[in-house]
Amino acid sequence: MSEKVLLKNIDPKNPQPVTFEQYVKNGGYEGARIALSKTPLEVQQIVKDSGLRGRGGAGFPTGLKWSFVPMDYQGQKYLICNCDEMEPGTFKDRALVYGDPHQLIEGMLIAAYAMQMTKGFIFIRYEYKKGAEILDRAIAEAEQHGWLGKNIQGSGFDFHLETHLSAGRYICGEETALLNSLEGKRANPRSKPPFPQIRGFLGQPTIVNNVETLCNIPHILAKGPEWYKKLGLNGNAGTKLMGASGRVKTPGLWELPMGTPLSVLLNEYAGGPSREFPFKAVIPGALSTPIFTPEQFDTPMDFDSVAKAGSRLGTACVIVFDEGDCMVAATANIMKFYARESCGFCTPCREGMQWIYDTVCAIRDGQGQPSDMQVLDDLSRHIAHTFCAFAPGAQDPFLSAITKFRHEFEEHIAKRTCSIAK
Amino acid sequence: MSELVKISIDGQEYQVPAGANLLQVCLDLGLMVPHFCYHEALGPAGSCRLCAAMVAPSAEKPAQLVMTCMTKVSEGMVVKIQDPYAKDFRRGVIEYLMLNHPHDCPVCDEGGECMLQDMTVLSEHIHRRSRFPKRTWRNQYLGPLIHHEMNRCITCYRCVRFYREYALGKDLGVFGSRDRVYFGRVKDGVLESEFAGNLVDVCPTGVFTNKRFREVYSRPWDLHTARAICVHCSIGCNLLPGGRHRTLRRIKPHPHKELNRFFICDRGRYGGEYVNLYPRQTRPTIAGTEVGFREAIHHAATQLRGIVEQHGTKAIVALGSSRASLETNAALNLLFKALGAEPQIVYYDSDEEYAAVRLAASLTTSRAITVPTLVEMEKCDFVLSIGGDLTGEAPMFDLSVRQAIRAGAAFFVISPRAGKLDEFARSVLRVRPDALAQAVEKILQALSNPAETIAPEIADIVQALRSAKKPLFLCSAIHGDVALIKATYDLAKAAHQENRPCFLAYYYPAANSVGVALANDSLEPTKALDLLRTGTAKAVIAVEHDLATFFGNLENAKGILEKCAFSMIVSSVDSIPPDMATVWLPASPHYLTSGKFVNYEGRVQHSEGLSLATPLTDGPADLLLSLIEDLGKSALLEQAQYSDIFAVAAEQNVELDELTAKDGGIFIRGQLRPTDLMRDSSPSLPKREMIRWDIIQTFGSEELSALAPPIAELAAPARIEMHPDDMAQQNIAEGDFVPVPDTPSMKLKVVPNPNLARGTFAVPRLPAHVASQVPVEVQA
Ligand SMILES: Cc1cc2nc3c(=O)[nH]c(=O)nc-3n(C[C@H](O)[C@H](O)[C@H](O)COP(=O)(O)O)c2cc1C
Ligand code: SF4
Ligand code: SF4
Ligand code: SF4
Ligand code: FES
Question: pTM here?
Answer without folding.
Answer: 0.95
